[in-house]
TrEMBL record:
Any single Gene Ontology cellular-component annotation: cytosol
Location (main, coarse): cytoplasm
Reported cofactor(s): FAD; Zn(2+)
Complexes and interactors: Homodimer.
Protein name in UniProt: Ribosyldihydronicotinamide dehydrogenase [quinone]
Family classification: Belongs to the NAD(P)H dehydrogenase (quinone) family.
Originating organism: Neogobius melanostomus
Keyword Membrane: no
Location within or outside the cell: Cytoplasm
MF terms (GO), sorted A to Z: dihydronicotinamide riboside quinone reductase activity; metal ion binding; NAD(P)H dehydrogenase (quinone) activity
PANTHER family given in the database record: NAD P H OXIDOREDUCTASE-RELATED, NAD(P)H DEHYDROGENASE [QUINONE] 1 ISOFORM 1
Reaction(s) the record says it catalyses: 1-(beta-D-ribofuranosyl)-1,4-dihydronicotinamide + a quinone + H(+) = beta-nicotinamide D-riboside + a quinol
Length: 270
């Protein structure tokens, strides 16, 4: 059965390494009989700010505008702006979503953060009951594919930038897993701007190889919702702590004061 892939692409330059990585994904996945759509956020001039302009018609409370509540009502009534509705349609159809971007200030570029803010609206992407392992997009896989400006050693547990697993937690757990996505290990292109041409070619060749089996990959581990006391404190249940906490904590974020599990946000099965 044909798989649908959405690539959300956030780079201004067609000559960039990010563009080459995006084009490689399009080529390989199409050769695997996937239907591939690309949301080129800069080319689309996608609005990065979440404002009342994202709603068609009157808002419920203009004096105290609350974006989540107002966009939930607008989504229910089909009154979200056309650009948001179109991205939500693409997302609903996707079996796999690849976010391709350069890392800016240890996170995503503003235009991609705006895509998350505006597209992943309350009701459409999550509710209080439907989040994390019970999330709305639990049948959809998602992947961060990005370039860094720093060398890999700088993002190590002893590196000056700190552990990349910690850097990734807010993005992979706080956005993707929060909405239920099965989060695949990230594709990180370490400092391609500093690499020799043969080094950049090797990075792209490795990406091409990975793309061949990407849709069959296993996702990263996140502690399931049923391990938490979701009626009161949203803390790990005592029996979950006893079962999950050994030498290391369960995840890079929920670590119970134990050492972080190595590569929890970078490799599946750890």
């Amino acid at each position: 059965m044909e798989k649908n892939v959405l690539i959300v692409y956030a780079h201004q330059s067609a000559g960039s390494f990010s563009a080459a990585a995006k084009e490689a994904a399009v080529e390989v996945l199409k050769s695997k009989d996937c239907s591939v759509k690309v949301s080129d956020l800069y080319a689309m001039k996608f609005k990065a700010t979440a404002t009342a302009e994202d709603i068609t018609g009157e808002v419920k409370n203009s004096e105290h505008f609350r974006y989540a509540e107002e966009t939930k009502l607008a989504w229910d009534e089909g009154r979200l702006s056309a650009d948001i509705a179109e991205e939500q349609r693409k997302l609903q159809e996707a079996d796999l979503v690849i976010f391709q971007f350069p890392m800016y200030w240890f996170t995503v570029p503003a235009v991609l953060k705006g895509w998350f803010d505006r597209v992943l609206t309350l009701g459409f992407a999550y509710t209080k009951e439907k989040r994390y392992s019970n999330g709305i997009f639990k049948k959809t896989k998602a992947l961060l594919s990005f370039t860094t400006g720093s060398q890999e050693t700088m993002f190590s547990p002893t590196g000056i930038n700190g552990d990349m697993n910690v850097t990734l937690w807010p993005l992979q757990n706080g956005i993707l897993h929060y909405c239920g996505f099965q989060v695949l290990p990230p594709q990180i292109f370490w400092a391609p701007a500093d690499a020799a041409p043969e080094g950049r070619s090797a990075m792209l060749a490795a990406w091409n190889t990975r793309l061949q089996g990407l849709l069959d990959e296993k996702p990263l581990f996140f502690t399931p919702m049923d391990c938490f006391d979701c009626e009161k404190s949203f803390q790990l249940k005592p029996e979950s702590i006893e079962k999950c906490v050994k030498e290391f904590g369960p995840t890079a974020g929920t670590h119970c004061g134990k050492p972080l599990p190595p590569n929890n946000q970078m490799k599946a099965g750890v």
